[in-house]
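Let's practice the habit of predicting before peeking. Look at the sequence and jot down your guess about where helices and strands might fall. Then scroll down.
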Amino acid sequence: MIAGHKRFLAEKFPARKDDFHLLAESQAPDYLFITCSDSRIVPDLILGTGPGELFISRAIGNIVPIGDASSADGVTATIEYAVEVLKVRHVIVCGHSDCGALKAALDRKHLEKLPKSRRWLQHVEAAFVHRQPLDPADGEHADLASLIRGNVVAQLMNLREQPSVARAVMEGRLAVHGWYYDILSGRIERYDEKLRRFEPLVS
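Done guessing? Here is the structure:
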């Protein structure tokens, strides 16, 4: 990591010094990207974005929790700030293949010594209701992939229930999206809410 930082200072920072000077004063991203904490998911690499373009929220299972008005957590606070203060125009909930959180939801015995994770994963219960059709392309992992896609749908619905999001969508200044990223192929699918199915983001 230190060697990487040295390369950044020597090679990348000088070429974009003016950009970083502007970003040091403020930020104005158009996108809030809600994704999993998984180390294999690198939004800027996958999407070709750079500093200042994405406001990112990461938590295991790309979960958007629903609670009473007095509850507080980092994800919903991030959403509120992004929508009300930064005025982002798009919010994307992005799940991914081989998600450990959804594996745990399928097999709870691994959560016996992880009480906080067990409580957090209560927010994925709706994923079972929204499971997507099995895709033969997912092979032996089709059952898990179906649940992961269902979780994207569930968290997209939770996102729409956030007061700041509901208000911004109603006012026509915000659009929300559900994505599924396949680590093996590098491809993204988007959830079509009218057709109620996932389609390739790009052909």
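How did you do? The mean pLDDT is 94.
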